[in-house]
Amino acid sequence: MKKHSFQIIVLAVTWIFISGSPSPQSLLTGLLLGAVITYVFRDLYGGDVKPLSLEKIRYMTIYIFSFLEDLLISNLGVAYLIMHPSKQKNTCIIEYRTKLESPNALTLLANSITLTPGTLVVDYREKDQMMLIHCLNLRDRQQTFKDVRKWEKLLQKIFGEKT
After folding, report:
1. CA 148 to CA 44: how far, in whole Å?
2. Domain that holds residue 32
3. Cα–Cα distance between 110 and 92 in angstroms, integer?
């Protein structure tokens, strides 16, 4: 349980924000819930979890802001398509070969792509590390690859993989 103490504290602080009460009772409840949740889900992490460093936190922050920027741009693009239904769309499925090895990093990349409006990871072929991505309106295939590669490189640094 000692190696999960940071996670317990993060969950406790999250609980305090959710409950809206920074009281000692809320902190105790958060610590208790954090300990129970961490214990129940401890096997989901495998050997993939490494300690956080300032460098990883820096790359996580960059990843979050990069994702939020792309999320905003995609939302505006999809809103434009909805407001102009007669506009020609270039809907297609593209193949993207990833270099990520960690299941957690792959999941985070796939979820980030899927959460971005206008794109959806349809399938992942493990044998050749290929993601099939549905694009609502593909304008530039190389730019799309460049955007995904940007996230992928950040995830490689966050999860300690070779770049």
Report:
1. 26
2. 2-44
3. 17
With a CB cutoff of 8 Å and minimum separation 6, the contacts of 151 are 63, 66, 67, 109, 112
Q: Give the tens place of pLDDT for each residue, 57-86.
A: 899 999 999 999 999 999 999 999 999 888
Q: Could you report the per-residue pLDDT of 136-150, keeping only the tens digit for each?
A: 988 888 999 999 999
Mention every residue, 6+ apart, whose C-beta is less than 8 A from residue 41: none
Cα separation, 24 vs 27, whole angstroms: 5
Does residue 95 share a domain with residue 18? no
Same domain, 100 and 38: no
Residue 145 belongs to a domain: yes
Q: Could you say which residues of the chain have pLDDT below 70?
A: 1-4, 43-52
CA gap 120, 94 in Å, rounded: 10
Say if CB 30 and CB 13 are below 8 A apart. yes
Q: Count of H helices and E strands in the chain?
A: 5, 3
